[in-house]
Design brief:
Largest sheet: 4 strands, antiparallel
CATH class of the largest domain: Alpha Beta
Strand content: 35-45%
Number of strands: 13
CATH topology of the largest domain: Outer Surface Protein A, domain 3
Strand order of the largest sheet: 11-12-7-13
Distance between the termini: 56 Å
Oligomer: single chain
Helix content: 10-25%
CATH superfamily of the largest domain: Ribosomal protein L6
Number of domains: 2
């Protein structure tokens, strides 16, 4: 039995959950999310909790048990609290600003990088070098943060680039540091 999968998911009173034809819909104060549920798991939905159970003991069902529980829990947490991923920009002249629905990044290239902010995501820029990507869909928040980071990944010699706030960059010694 999956240790994660057997845990019940607590549902707050402000969240409404419906299951129709193996499509789970979660509606809360921040927004609404839908997800296709795999046929190898079944859901037991009550007013205060959701339980994820396996249909049989096959390998596919065992693999999907904990995954499905975690995905549903992320949906419930997302529509109630939301998710946030923080990024830091390091480098001389590197900065970010939000113009309308675009994020404009100056990253040392000959041109500014324009990034179209997806629907359901909000980006807050503090001090032009700190970004906060916020939203209610955990997958979309992480994907957006990774896309922004990919424009200029941190390099190991000077640490210039875009990194996650909780990420540590392993620094290398240059040619002169090898004495």
């Amino acid at each position: 039995m999956s240790r994660i999968g057997k845990l019940p998911i607590e549902v707050p009173k402000s969240v409404k959950i419906t299951l129709t034809d193996s499509v789970l819909s979660v509606v809360g104060p921040k927004g609404s999310l839908t997800r296709q549920i795999m046929p190898v798991v079944s859901l037991n939905i009550s007013d205060t909790a959701i339980e994820v159970m396996r249909v049989d003991d096959s390998t596919a069902a065992r693999s999907a048990h904990g995954l499905t529980r975690t995905l549903i829990n992320n949906m419930v947490v997302g529509v109630t609290n939301g998710f946030q991923r923080d990024l830091e920009i390091n480098g001389v002249g590197y900065r970010a600003e939000v113009k309308g629905s675009d994020l404009v990044l100056a990253l040392g290239y000959s041109h500014p990088v324009n990034f179209q902010i997806p629907d359901g995501i909000s980006i807050d820029v503090e001090k032009m070098t700190k970004l906060s990507v916020k939203g209610f869909d955990k997958e979309l928040v992480g994907q957006t943060a990774a896309k922004i980071r990919s424009f200029r990944r941190p390099e190991p010699y000077k640490g210039k680039g875009i990194k996650y706030a909780d990420e540590t960059i392993l620094r290398k010694a240059g040619k002169t540091g090898k004495k």
